[in-house]
Design a protein that fits this description.
- The chain is an alpha+beta fold.
- The protein folds into two domains: 26-130, no CATH class; 140-265, no CATH class.
- Helix content is 28%, strand content 24%.
- The chain has helices at residues 26-41, 80-89, 98-114, 116-120, 173-180, 226-234, 246-256; strands at 46-47, 61-65, 71-75, 95-96, 129-130, 140-145, 152-157, 163-169, 188-193, 205-212, 215-218, 222-224, 257-265.
- Strand 11 and strand 12 form a beta hairpin.
- Helix 1 (26-41) crosses helix 3 (98-114) and helix 6 crosses helix 7 (246-256).
- It is globular, with a radius of gyration of 19 Å.
- Mean pLDDT is 89; it is low at 1-15.
- InterPro entries: Gln_gamma-glutamylTfrase_bac.
- GO terms for molecular function: protein-glutamine gamma-glutamyltransferase activity.
- Keywords: Sporulation, Transferase.
Length: 268
C-alpha cells in the first residue's frame, strides 16, 4: 500500500488554513474538504483503542462524560472552527479510534463547505463536543445493518428510527463491491471480523469513510480500496507482509469478513 506524503504541520497563528477555499457548490466543497482532511490526517494522527490514553490539545478541549458515562471531549476555549483547524495543524497531538477519526473528518468537510462563520454556529464553549454517539453538528440519514454475513440488511431511518427490511443481501466480496459503487462519498462503511479470536478486540469492527470510488479512509490503516482493507484486517499484526500466505488470507476473508453497517450521513 503506497504511503501518502505527509505535509509539514504549522501552528494556527500565522500558519496554514488547510480548509480554505469554499467552493460555489456545497457538495463539491464538502467532498473536497473530506479528501483534504483525510490526506492531511492519515499517518499523522495516532490510533487509540479502548485501552490507549487519549491524546488531544488541552488548550481547546477538556474531557467529560456523556449520558451513558463514556468519556467525550468538550470545547472549553476558542471557537469550533479554531479547534478543528488546530487538529489539522497539530495532528500529532491527537489519538483517535476509527469512529472518532471519521467524525473529525466530517467536521473538516462541513467547515470547508459551510465556511468559518456558519460552522461556528454549530456550537460553542461547553456545547461543541466530540462524542462516540452524539458529536455536535453530525447527523445520520439512513443506516443499513445486519448481524451476520448471510443476513439481509435492515434499513433504519434516522428521523423515525423505524427499521424495515431492505432486501439487500451481500454474501460475497464481489456483491459487496458492486453495491458499494452506489454508496455516496462521505458514507460510513463498517467491516466486521466474525472469527472468535477477533471478538472484543479493537479490530473486530473497522469503521471507514468513503472518499472516492473504491477509496476508503480506515484509521489506522490509511486510504485503501475495499479489498486492501479486507487484506489488512485478515493479516495478523505481527506477521511480515512478505510472509503472508495469500491463499490462506483469501480463505479467511471469505469465511470471516463482511460489511456489517453502511450509513448515509447528512452533510450539513
Amino acid at each position: 500500500m503506497p504511503k501518502k506524503k505527509k505535509k509539514t504541520g504549522v501552528g494556527q497563528a500565522g500558519g496554514v488554513d488547510w480548509m480554505a477555499g469554499l467552493g460555489p457548490d456545497y457538495d463539491k466543497a464538502y467532498e473536497k474538504g473530506l479528501r483534504k482532511a483525510a490526506e492531511r490526517l492519515t499517518d499523522t494522527v495516532a490510533f487509540g483503542g479502548t485501552d490507549t490514553p487519549r491524546g488531544y490539545n488541552k488548550t481547546y478541549w477538556k474531557t467529560g462524560k456523556d449520558r451513558d458515562g463514556d468519556e467525550i471531549l468538550i470545547l472549553h476555549f476558542g471557537t469550533p472552527a479554531a479547534a478543528v483547524l488546530d487538529i489539522l495543524n497539530s495532528p500529532k497531538k491527537w489519538t483517535l479510534d476509527c469512529i472518532e477519526f471519521i467524525q473529525v473528518l466530517r467536521w473538516c468537510a462541513q467547515y470547508h463547505a459551510l465556511g468559518q462563520e456558519a460552522f461556528n454556529k454549530l456550537g460553542g464553549i461547553n456545547s461543541f463536543k466530540l462524542s462516540y454517539h452524539e458529536t455536535t453538528g453530525l447527523r445520520g440519514r439512513q443506516l443499513y445493518l445486519r448481524s451476520r454475513k448471510r443476513d439481509a440488511f435492515d434499513c433504519v431511518d434516522a428521523m423515525t428510527n423505524r427499521k424495515t427490511p431492505s432486501g439487500v443481501i451481500l454474501s460475497t466480496t464481489a456483491q459487496e463491491d458492486e453495491f458499494l459503487k452506489s454508496v455516496p462519498i462521505g458514507s460510513r462503511v463498517m467491516w466486521s471480523d466474525s472469527h472468535p479470536d477477533a471478538a472484543d478486540t479493537d479490530f473486530e469492527n473497522e469503521n471507514t469513510l468513503k472518499i472516492g470510488p473504491d477509496e476508503y479512509v480506515a484509521h489506522p490503516f490509511g486510504i485503501l480500496s475495499a479489498q486492501e482493507l479486507r487484506e489488512e484486517m485478515a493479516t495478523p499484526e505481527d506477521e511480515d507482509e512478505d510472509d503472508v500466505d495469500e491463499a490462506k488470507r483469501d480463505a479467511y476473508i471469505r469465511r470471516n469478513l463482511f460489511i456489517k453497517e453502511i450509513e448515509w450521513y447528512a452533510r450539513s
